[in-house]
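Q: Start with the shorter request: fold the first protein.
A: Done. Sequence, then structure:
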Amino acid sequence: MQEDGIRLDVYAEESREDDIDMVYDIEPDKDGRETLRHILPKRARFYHAKIDADSLASGEDYGQLKNVAVIFISPYDPFQLNRMVYTIKNSCIEEPELSYEDGARTIFLYTKGTKGNPPEELRRLLKYLEDSREENAKDADLMAIHQMVQKVKHDREVSLEYMKIFERERMIREDGYTSGKEAELIGIIRRKRGKGLSAKEIAEWLELDEVYVQNVVDLLEKNPDADDPEIGQMCRENRN
């Protein structure tokens, strides 16, 4: 997929009262490397085997095995026949017309394919999945997907930011870090403060909790003659 495309694997199950349950495993090609084309059939085989093993408990009747569709979405043509949709199922080599229904399907979607008269809805969907900008969300369904994607991206960015802050605070609290590394951190805060930055600005720059930085700034102002390790010791005493 392109850099701006969606990179979300999807696993979904559909319960059917009058039929066997259906599993959909959607696998966007994250690498987009045509050199890996030859291994796609074995990748599909592996995914089918894993899903089957997970969906049927030991001792259960094989008739309860769920139908499975593994769907690959790729920016390159997996079979070089210019089709947007390639549907693969098992069959009998000697009798091609023999019905052999094991419930397994593998579908390869080539985002730029043209053969086979693919429906316009699928064309638009694949174009959006490849390049998930708002201008490619051409209908209400795609716009709903786009809004969901934007929310997921935002929530992920916020989560990562909190993780960074948490990790820094954890490191500050750990023994072995506090004596040396915290002194280095305090030295940075001292220099930034000397350049006129506020505690809030320093906290944002260092991706630290503002309360912690404000505490360091207060100690620096109250103890101008104390060196960085001494300020660090004061911080640890305050935390304890």
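Q: Next, the second protein, separately.
A: Sequence, then structure:
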Amino acid sequence: FKGKSRQLTILARQSVKVFPVLRIFNIWKKRILIFIYMDSKKHIYSYSRASIYISRYECHERIWVTLDNCVEVGRIANTYNLTEVDKYVNSFVLKNFPALLSTGEFLKLPFERLAFVLSSNSLKHCTELELFKATCRWLRLEEPRMDFAAKLMKNIRFPLMTPQELINYVQTVDFMRTDNTCVNLLLEASNYQMMPYMQPVMQSDRTAIRSDTTHLVTLGGVLRQQLVVSKELRMYDEKAHEWKSLAPMDAPRYQHGIAVIGNFLYVVGGQSNYDTKGKTAVDTVFRFDPRYNKWMQVASLNEKRTFFHLSALKGYLYAVGGRNAAGELPTVECYNPRTNEWTYVAKMSEPHYGHAGTVYGGVMYISGSYHLALTEFTSDNFPSFEGQPVPSQQLHN
């Protein structure tokens, strides 16, 4: 090191991103870099905290963070309160966690960093079972670590495991049967899996898919040139700038309703054939689970509907108006995921079909159709299903 100061940066191998990290007196720069490059702990720990002054210096040296040294770099960052370095190490460990699991360095991770990784939605390419097994290895390395068992297990998403995985690999672990917190986690997973229809309204951090991105999806519709109804489900991948196919529906759909509750996609009604009169309307309802890329059928509507509006409001689905072979519909149905039932609620004063709708501020608005008015459904008593909820209705010219 020459001169008074240089910018010290940190760089992950196989990356071109330069990250400013810390600034220290020139007299100590060589000591830190000796550890980073030579893995010599004595050159770091032989100097007291008072010897290192953390400030904003500029140094153009690059520190390589690798699977072999990330744990020790993180330890140094934590010891000397190097916040930016610590954040970078967290990011590196999170991004490379699947590879880190196969090294001995994984077992050296401190509790705080392991808990951070296990709690993250950004953790990719690891199943929950793999995370559980790895965490058990970490806990069993040293007896005092077992004190962290319950805290770490809270970050494992047991409801996302299969029943076979829970029975064969999780329930066979001793502390999962003896620790009260762990027992409750297993009960939570069991209850969640035994009530598939209720899962959209049972969502929590442990039932959510590990993802930090949202995606635009398209479903069904008509290929206009051939007038063929599609059953395809596609997701737009922003990074690849392309549409990717997901599991298709069992039957094609056109003029159907789509809504989301708890990150489950519902497809309601519509028709399977191209028919502008709505005579081939259907009453079937399907739900898509993005965690497993699978469809399941739920309770059907009380009436066949097409050209209608569907909204999700406070954990319920509302199918409004539409038409079928019998004509235009003024009726409104509400789906309760807790009971897997559709129930009639107060109907509109006039039939509507081909209309638009949306939810805003806890209120569903319906507009258009041949009745050129705005219909407002207030939702004050929608969530209460002690009896039948009856929405009030107002027309706005």
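Q: Describe the second briefly.
A: The CA atoms of residues 13 and 66 lie 7 Å apart. Residues 1-30, 39-62, 379-397 have pLDDT under 50 and may be disordered.
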